[in-house]
Fold this protein.
Amino acid sequence: MSIVKINSSALEGEVVIPPSKSAAHRALICSFLSGGGTVNPIIDSKDMQATVGVIEALKNGKSVLDCIESGSTLRFMIPVAAALGRSVTFTGQGSLLDRTIGEYLEILPKHNVSVKSSGRLPIEISGRLDNGTYEVSGDVSSQYITGLLLALPNLAGDSAVILKTPLQSKPYVDMTVKVMSDYGVEIRETDFGYLIHGGQTFKKLDYTVEGDWSHSAFFLAAGAIGGDVTVSGLDMDTAQGDKAILEVLSSFGAQTEINDSRVRCVKSELKGTEIDATDIPDLVPVIAVLAAFSKGQTVIKGARRLRFKESDRIKSVVENLKLIGVDVIQTEDGMIINGGAKLHPAKLKGYNDHRIVMAFSIAALFLNGATEIDDAISINKSYPSFFEDYNRIGGKADVI
């Protein structure tokens, strides 16, 4: 087990944010389907290793595809492999073994693909996917829709993805459509879902991955609570839904300055607010930390799907907040936080969840004393250099 020990301090300076994990997943798959071109830069995280590894395994004709702990890799690549007619077994590690894949168990057999699975990994598929109508729940995971959108243009005929329930985390699907458009593939959004023409060709190109807005949120929050932080390398015209961190900060009363690809956030008088996290679930841990240091009540709602991430993130966040002295109530789809009280250091749980570790590393900056968080190495899933960047601009984190 790894532990990070953090002493209170303030972050001041500039962080060049790593490339977007979400955009890189999609670009790597599009590049694979195009048969050429490069995708750069990509961060050497566990999730990126998973997608790169699965693609290499498919290129080399291997039958076992290890998605490590990446839910995106798993849910994106199952229909892609099926569209290519591959007979393969998907495996994984750690928390991914408990993540559900139920939508594909129902959908794929209706379209000529044999699926063998207990409902979780491993999952064995065989047969070539055929075109047609795909009815999918929109409130389970947007990753299923992205997987189908990446796969269906490769088929001979046209297909439609029909949403049986309203789509949550829609910005992630918008990002998929944007990246696919960059590769010359058209996805048409309709009133019922998406229309996908078959027989399309992904064009070969060298793709530049934009900076990651979800990672920028941790450092911008540190600036808002009690620092002066600039994050650079961001695309202001992005399709990334987590650019909404700018609106979130504004709703808390934080002061931000935007200059080209840079965002600066400085110490501000923060006040409680209400956040609907339906489209920004990954931001909830850091939003909760902002709320803890804001005067008044903050209500976070629309985050029910967070119970099925690397950890039950609603429960994980609430339990850690209580340990540092926050008045917080867990709800079915979020939490109610009464912020502004004097907080204290504690021994916190990382829950083997990268976003929990990073969010509470920000909280630890403003606790008077030393805070410990276990499972610190879980940051390798998405942002291995997080503590290096953190310490470089004033943090005092020691990973043991």
About this structure: DSSP finds twelve helices and 22 strands in the chain. Residues 21-34 form the longest helix (14 residues).
